Amino acid sequence: GPSMSLCLRMLRSFGVLLLAAGLLRAQELDGHPEFVPTPAHLPRVAVLQFDLKTNERAARPREALEDLVSAAFLQTRRFDMVERPRVGLVIQELRFQREGLVDPSTIQELGRLLGAEVAVTGNAQIFVGLRAYDIYLNLRVIQIRTGQVSESLHFMGRGGSFNLVRAEANALEDLGENLEKELSRLYPARGVVLKMLPEGRVL
User: Fold this and answer.
1) In terms of Cα–Cα distance, which of 203, 182, 176, 174 is closest to 191?
2) Separation of alpha carbons 98 and 62, rounded Å
């Protein structure tokens, strides 16, 4: 009846007010609170295979770089990731050449086959010297529907050690921190604060 309809309208209005209050509260918080993602569609991202050039044949961390980039995008909570093994399997089955992945139409075709809306391609240059291990990583974020490059990003990671394995690990760690920092700035978290805990975290 009329009274039931009125109650439903009041409940809906109350829910909207709660949501708005939560969003405003999230904006007022200092520091870096954890947000509860709002129920929304998250675009699927496929991190494709990277090209790698280095002056040290033993330095071949291509898969580690791809995993690092995937983790950094996932950390933003703004994307859903295509599983890395699936990306490799589709590329292998279609026998794409590395050079072919640079072509926008090929990337669009690959993205559609993977069910992705965004593709990330990249190339890395690694310089290894005496107690030096420098990684220069260039990324392109491509919108599958249009084939347009929405972001062109450049990162660096440095590691120093006489031990090649340790130097590589240090450089990857440094690169990972730079990736997370920049991607968090480009793709800030969206959500609602449900509860503020005493230590400054939210639930």
Assistant:
1) 203
2) 13
Element holding 115 (H helix, E strand): none
The answer to whether residue 10 scores a pLDDT higher than 70 is: no
Residue 59: alpha-carbon gap to chain centroid: 24
Per DSSP, the residues of 12-41 read HHHHHHHHHHHHHHHHH--S-PPPEE-S-P
Q: pTM of the full predicted structure?
A: 0.70
Buried/exposed code over 111-143 (b: 16+ C-beta within 10 A; e: otherwise): beebebbbbbbbbbebebeeeebbbbbebbbbb
How does pLDDT run across 53-86, given as a tens digit for each residue? 999 888 788 899 999 999 999 999 999 999 989 9
Contact 20, 12 (CB under 8 A): no
Pick from 147, 144, 169: which is nearest to 158 by CA?
Answer: 169
Write out pLDDT tens, residues 139-194: 999 999 999 999 999 999 999 888 999 999 999 999 999 999 999 999 997 764 45
Distance (Å, whole) CA 101 – CA 94: 11
The single residue listed with the structure tokens 């983790």 is: 71
Q: Which two tokens stand for residue 18?
A: 């709660």
The letter for the amino acid at 98 is: R
Cα–Cα distance for residue pair 1/166, rounded to 1 Å:
72
**Cα end-to-end distance, the chain, whole Å:** 38
